[in-house]
Amino acid sequence: MQTTMMNVPLSLNHLLDRAGMLFRNNEVVSRLPDKSLRRHSYGEFHRRTRALGSALQRLGLRKGDRVATLCWNHHAHLECYFGIPAAGGVMHTLNLRLAPDEIGWIANDAGDRFLIIDDVLLPLYEKFKHLHKFDKVIVFPFSGAPVAPAFTDYEALLAGADPDGFQYVPHDEDDPVSMCYTSGTTGKPKGVVYSHRSTVLHSLVAGLADFAAVRSTDVVLPVTPMFHANSWGMPYISVMMGAKLVFPGPHLHPDDLLDLMTAEPPTLSLGVPTIWLSLIQTYDASLKPGSPHAGRWKLPRGMRSFVGGAAVPESLIRAFDAHGIWIQQGWGMTETSPIATVSYQRAELRDMSADEKYRRAALAGSPVPLVDLRARGDDGTNQPWDGRSVGEIQVRGPFITGGYYAVGSPSDKFTPDGWLRTGDVASVDDLGFVKISDRTKDLIKSGGEWISSVDLENALMAHPAIAEAAVIAIPDEKWSERPLACVVLIAGEQATPDELNEWLLERSFAKWQLPERYEFIDAVPRTSTGKFWKLKLREQFPG
Ligand code: ADP
Q: Could you give the CA distance from residue 331 to residue 206 in angstroms, rounded to a whole number?
């Protein structure tokens, strides 16, 4: 006898059907390789996604088979997000910015059976195809050119499928829907596998009003690649709520993003800080007298921007706010689906000063519902939430991974009592706001004291002459390690190490925390997900 609620499994198929029924006139817009815009209705999206599910079944997809995608952000990739799991498969997003050998290694490690790839990325496929044999390579004619007969044509496949007769493959809510490899910034890439349940719960939580606050009336621009932790779950959340989606395709240069924002003004956008940094610098330069781009762009006032993946400098938040755009910071990782903490306005802080508002916005924020968080000290006890004591952030919850594909739960990644070790070092204040000081690997230990590279970088990036700053540790005989600041100046600006030290001292850094040395460089190297790549800097400046 049932005496409590129905035990209906959480399912992505429900989100898909809901979108097809309720939001069929809402739009999905994709930027094509030739920069034109292609418009789709949610009704078409629903039909095409079911057609994809049906076609994959006809091709012999078995439940649990991995289907890799090597695609930019666009409507067909969105179809894969829902169509592959609808047919019982597991969508595995490959990171197109990795070296070909790494992509091949990852596809092989995951045992991917099929590959769905943009035609414009076939040259990349040619470079790794010797490392893994797919049963089928399905080519999406993104550029509009005909697909070579050696491959299966995605559009022909959909045209010949039967969306009306398609039956969802029965599943449990814990069955896998997608997988994503960690980037390997701090070790060998490992597969994180998401389930129906974890994806639906993450969508419900991350979309709440205090966090991404996604509404049906929103126009969402996901600049974060769909291979980077599922574009932070935003494709799922947008479909769940029926928001209009605008996909940038392969055009991620600041000029192109500003063109797109001017043509299809978003109300919500998301990306890593480095992209937002170059976006605002490009936009502000266009406002200067004599700029060749004068009048070309209009930043959408009122847009909210969800930014994370690396610390968000306060100066960046202020720069966008000056244009009426509010940046909201989140922290998380591939392993956490990824949104685990978000900085947001709290009732206690309603009357805070503008400075305090910006300071809080530059923190990683506090844990979202369903995520337990603790900062573990070196002695294995929890650090007090006093805003000063630092420890490793550890998390637990229904959308935090419990292990890795084929690897399980190694002890350097999970505690004996089942929490994920994030490798991020942080303090937590009395309101539960997390302040990330570093990744364990990036910490600088000088004379027995930790120096936060994130704090130094943020203060340096607030300097009017500085475009980018990344701080790394260099070995030091006396102090064991000292900070080295790698600085990129804004074109035409000047700053000397003495001036920069003075600037830091004025911002309450102690003398011993100042960089030992400055290197003025042309650009900070980027990882495959667009973050500052400190490993490369450490190789470049070993001491
Ligand atoms: P990777 O950065 O290695 O490509 P992920 O995308 O999974 O892989 O990144 C997760 C890591 O990114 C976190 O462990 C943390 O170090 C960093 N990170 C994410 N968000 C923030 C943030 N808001 N502030 C500081 N660091 C962040």
A: 12
Q: Ligand 1 centroid vs 447 CA: distance in angstroms?
A: 27
Q: Which residues line ligand 1 (CB under 6 A)?
A: 182-183, 185, 229, 308-311, 329, 331-334, 364, 422-424, 436, 439, 527, 529, 531
- d(CA 54, CA 500) in angstroms, rounded, equals 61
Enumerate the active-site residues: 182, 335, 445, 450
CATH code of the domain made up of 253-439:
3.40.50.12780
Ligand 1 center to 333 CA (angstroms) = 5
**How far is it, in rounded angstroms, from Cα 448 to Cα 230?**
39
Q: How far apart are CA 281 and CA 468, in angstroms?
A: 11
Specify the CATH class of 12-190 in words.
Answer: alpha beta
Order the strands of the 219-222 sheet from edge to edge: 37-41, 27-31, 244-247, 219-222, 268-271, 304-308, 326-332, 339-342, 366-367
Q: What is the pLDDT along the chain (543 residues), one digit of tens a residue?
A: 889 999 999 999 999 999 999 999 999 999 999 999 999 999 999 999 999 999 999 999 999 999 999 999 999 999 999 999 999 999 999 999 999 999 999 999 999 999 999 999 999 999 999 999 999 999 999 999 999 999 999 999 999 999 999 999 999 999 999 999 997 665 689 999 999 999 999 999 999 999 999 999 999 999 999 999 999 999 999 999 999 999 999 999 999 999 999 999 999 999 999 999 999 999 999 999 999 999 999 999 999 999 999 999 999 999 999 999 999 999 999 999 999 999 999 998 889 999 999 999 999 999 999 999 999 998 999 999 999 999 999 999 999 999 999 999 999 999 999 999 999 999 999 999 999 998 888 889 888 888 999 999 999 999 999 999 999 999 998 889 999 999 999 988 999 999 999 999 999 899 999 999 999 999 999 999 889 999 899 999 987
Domain boundaries, the chain: 12-190, 253-439, 444-540
**Do the domains 12-190 and 444-540 sit in the same CATH topology, yes or no?**
no
Q: Which CATH superfamily is domain 444-540 in?
A: ANL, C-terminal domain (3.30.300.30)
